[in-house]
Amino acid sequence: MSPRPRETSDDDILAATARVMQRLSPTQLTLADIAKEAGVVPATLIQRFGTKRGLLLAMCRTAPAGVPQQFAAARMKHKSPLKALIELYAECTAFASTPEAMANGLAYLQIDLTDPEFHAITLAQFRALRDETQKLLDEAVAARELRKCKTGELARLIQHVNGGAMLSWAVYREGSVASWVRRDIEVLLQPYRRSRKNSGPEKNSNRNAHPRKKAS
Known about the structure:
Blueprint: H1 10-23, H2 31-38, H3 42-49, H4 52-77, H5 81-91, H6 99-114, H7 116-142, H8 151-172, H9 177-189
Helix pairs in contact: 1-2, 1-4, 2-3, 3-4, 4-5, 4-7, 5-7, 5-9, 6-7, 7-8, 8-9
């Protein structure tokens, strides 16, 4: 006899966990809260994940592999590499759409920075994000949306600007966090953008620079 299919998948439970984490800090979060959100009993979570720590680790482990998928989806949605990049970062602010959710996110980040297992996962996620960002920047250079530049360094700066913009928004609380991230990344990229008149094939700068006089 084949086992009964699970009505609530592990993926559903992990998605429910992420939603609850936006509302509750690490000290407030309980398996009962997650079970209620997922529509299961706490015993189900214990059976599948063992402890709250085990459940949180399982949820975090999905993040690094999910980064390339997010970028692939952005490419499908937007023809322009730069548009895809900017909108992806703006959309990724959804986990902290309120100052309270931002505060909770920072509380979980403290765990990521002090717990070796969580830190290893977060480091892999940040590296994946940096690498995928550089790939889109390289595509933007190839598409002549950006001037030739050190895309690895620019990718690193975009990560910094993204984090700073989100924190600043949580303090100022003007507009939406997505609009802050979108605006600040646009400002960072502006000096690297090609103007429309220069977006065509590059011309030889020496060509006709010193035209010869016609023979008399």
